[in-house]
Specification:
The protein is mainly beta. It is built from no helices and 12 strands.
Length: 69
């Protein structure tokens, strides 16, 4: 589910997730079973089973099963 405004880079794979509002996702990122709002995700990041709110995640990051603000 995408809640605008959202910017998603090319080559991203997003499954079973809620993205937005106010989210930017860099290219070639993988997001699975996550909820992300008001956040910036860098390129080549992998996020699984995570809840993000008001967060900035750098490029080449792997996160699993966390709630981050």
């Amino acid at each position: 589910m995408i809640v605008q405004p959202v910017s998603i880079g090319g080559g991203c794979n997003i499954k079973n997730s809620i993205i937005g509002p106010n989210v930017t996702i860099g290219e070639n990122s993988i997001i699975d079973s996550s909820i992300i709002k008001d956040s910036i995700i860098g390129s080549f990041s992998n996020l699984y089973d995570i809840v993000l709110d008001d967060s900035v995640i750098g490029s080449d990051t792997n996160l699993r099963g966390e709630s981050v603000r």
